Amino acid sequence: MPSPFIQACRRQHTPFTPVWFMRQAGRSLPEFRALRERYSFFELLASPELTAEVTLQPVRRLGVDAAILFSDIVAPLAAIGVGVDIKPGVGPVFAEPFRSDADLARLRPIEPDEDLQPMLEAVRILHAELDVPLIGFGGAPFTMASYFVEGGPSREYARTKALMLGDPGLWRRLLDRLADLTIAVLRAQVGAGAAAVQVFDSWAGVLAPQHYERHVLPVSARIFDELRGLGAPMVHFGVTTGELLGLLAAAGPDVVGVDWRVPLGAAWQRVGAKAVQGNLDPAVLGAPWEAVAAEADAVLAAAAGRPGHVFNLGHGVLPDTDPDVLARLVDHVHARTAT
Amino acid sequence: MPSPFIQACRRQHTPFTPVWFMRQAGRSLPEFRALRERYSFFELLASPELTAEVTLQPVRRLGVDAAILFSDIVAPLAAIGVGVDIKPGVGPVFAEPFRSDADLARLRPIEPDEDLQPMLEAVRILHAELDVPLIGFGGAPFTMASYFVEGGPSREYARTKALMLGDPGLWRRLLDRLADLTIAVLRAQVGAGAAAVQVFDSWAGVLAPQHYERHVLPVSARIFDELRGLGAPMVHFGVTTGELLGLLAAAGPDVVGVDWRVPLGAAWQRVGAKAVQGNLDPAVLGAPWEAVAAEADAVLAAAAGRPGHVFNLGHGVLPDTDPDVLARLVDHVHARTAT
């Protein structure tokens, strides 16, 4: 019998609303911080046992209804030898950002069995150990490209947009290579035991809708087209995507992530006949419990009456979040929605 | 006869679409950078002549249809003695952030003639020198509070939101004091010669609409209510405000700023019977001219057929922007819309 998470992705009735949290594995958990003191980010990713352990930590502590493979949007780029570091408190930083056609050669095809050996071994360990579904982790081409072109996190994405509008041919070649990478990575994760996948286009919401539609959507759609046959539900996520929700849905996922800037009911109308995931503001978790519960109830009320809601935050867990609040929130959502 | 900018704010027919740019005075201009090498930000604000000079620079070079008083959202806080610095490349940084009821006492009433003497003298100089309207500059309570509570710029606004949801009474007292400050500052600017005002709620778009409506809108509305009788058109602006546009309009301005994430036509529907200002993505200006012109034409096409459009960017000019592109864009908009 499928799990509530998988059922919700398929818009089937569930015994309760399933819950997981983006970045549930990470700095909000003391057991993660303890590991992070001993290992760098890429050391964690290089060890199947450590990757599995970090993925399992929130499942044990919080009682969430899904695990998500501990990874990063740029991990596949690192796996094929593109020089990138994850700086604490900053994010991915590329030694040599993408600048011209010549840089396309740095994006060689990935050989999952070799290049992703630790990641796939972690998936196999998790598949054996987990009682809840494992969500595979992949980056969408726009967000991957934005890090690679900017050289790191950005506020303005000026270089990325200048490339997209100024040299749309090169932009498309870059995105196509990145899409090939994500397709291979997610196919391999599902082959090793992931029951669903999430494609993170975290920063797509910095784009005007007409630019997303022309320069990003066709490439993202190819990812979902090529993975659909695997039978694993596919989630697509980004923030500040209010105006893009219909286009993100059109790309072809089964589930669309919704941040907190759009009321869930309005978001669902734009998404259409898909499941939705979200949409509590992560910052709410820093307020007193009564406020947290009231805000969670408002999300549940907006989702009530039709199947297909995965409860989540609108973006990742903030590092200062109290894990006890997360655990209490899981129990609260389960209790409020139990049928 | 009123200027095209004022006419557009009032939704009257104009001989061409008026243009100005947020942050038109600033680091994109070499003449500004030259001054900034010799003076700190607050040294510029402390001198009426330098404030006026910096405000005039883009009018001379770019041919824009309005000037905006060179200032900062936190300038009134500095003027009443709250310790704040503007760090280059960072933004406002408070030595002692707002934490509790006791900090309300630091927000004493402002005495414009004393506390704002250099600012108001700059407005008088500009009123005498300018051939185009001067837009007064004020911060909206939410964005001012976010800087004061976080201690500086933020990505997550976690402390701000925790205060807002966790202690709504204190939050309201804080916002009311900040609104009083903005009302006094803008009234004084108009008294000294500003022909319009813009109230910057730059970061309001980080809020869920229901939080904005309950915890921010009533306070922002009081600003517009109290200033309406001055007769100066009032602009209200923020980014990532797609879902808030109707609420920003309900606060009572004459003109609502629109970032590039919402197509201007859709934005105008949400705003209703008001003028709109925007909405070119500032990052577009880094693309080749043909792309810039095409994007500007798309904005103009979305605004065509009804009066009440002020052409602007969806957010401030990026520091690396070529001033020649800005000047060319002003000419382009004028030529395309001349009747």
Question: Can you describe what's shown?
Answer:
The structure is a homodimer of 339-residue chains. Chain A is an alpha/beta fold. The first copy, chain A, has one domain (4-337): TIM Barrel, CATH 3.20.20.210. The first copy, chain A, contains 16 helices and nine strands. In chain A, strand 8 (275-280), helix 15 (289-303) and strand 9 form a beta-alpha-beta unit. In chain A, helix 8 packs across helix 10 and helix 9 (158-166) crosses helix 10. The longest helix of chain A has 25 residues, at 168-192. Chains A and B meet through helix 9, helix 11 and helix 15 of A and helix 9, helix 11 and helix 15 of B.
What topology emerges from the helices and strands here?
The structure is a homodimer of 339-residue chains.
Chain A: H1 4-9, H2 30-38, H3 41-46, H4 48-62, E1 67-68, H5 75-79, E2 84-87, E3 91-94, H6 112-115, H7 117-129, E4 134-139, H8 141-150, H9 158-166, H10 168-192, E5 196-200, H11 209-215, H12 217-227, E6 234-237, H13 245-250, E7 255-258, H14 264-271, E8 275-280, H15 289-303, E9 309-313, H16 323-337
Parallel strand pairs in A: 1-4, 4-5, 5-6, 6-7, 7-8, 8-9
Antiparallel strand pairs in A: 2-3
